[in-house]
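Bug #77: duplicate submission created two jobs. Keeping one. Sequence:
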Amino acid sequence: MSVLRLVGCAAFCVLVLAGCKDQLVMPDPVKLTREAIGNYCNMIIADHPGPKVQIHEKGYPNPLWFSSVRDGLAYLSLPGEAQKVLAIYVHDMGLAASWAEPQDEGIWIDAQKALYVIGSAKRGGMGAKETVPFKDRTKAQQFVARHGGQIVDLKGIPSTYLIGDDGEHPVPTVPIKEHDSHGS
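Kept job's structure:
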C-alpha cells in the first residue's frame, strides 16, 4: 500500500473523529519535556537534534513521541501501527531557534498542513535522512537553498523515503577468516 493511501487513511480517520466532537476532544500539542521517550528508540527525545513528531491516539493520555519526523511518518504508514490517530504535530523548522535544539513554544504545527523538505543534507535525530517540516513555503525554500532537497506536501513523500533504502546505512563488511581444517 502506498504512503499516499496510508496517510490518506490516517487523514480520513482524523476527519471522521473530528466529526465526533460531542464524544471526542481533539488534543492540543504537548510541551516536549525530558520525560518524552521515543516510541521506537526508547531514548530521551529532547537529546536529539532536528524536528520531532508527537502523535496523539485515542485511548492514550500522552502522545507517542518520535525523534525524527521521518520515523513518525513511517509509523503512520506501517500496517498495524497507528490505530486511532487524533492529531499529528510536527516542529515548524521555519520557527526553530536552531537545528540542534528547536525550542518548543509555539512551534508545533498540524502535520497535514505542513510542507516538507526531503532529500536535504540535514540528518534527523537518529542520524538518518530527515523529512523537514515547514509552515511557510518561503522558509522551506531558504532551507533548500542552504541544504538542498525538494519541497513536497505530505502526500508527495515517497514511501521509499520514509522506510529507507539500502544505501542509507551502509553495513560495514567484516573480513571472513578462512579456518584451517586441521585445527591449527
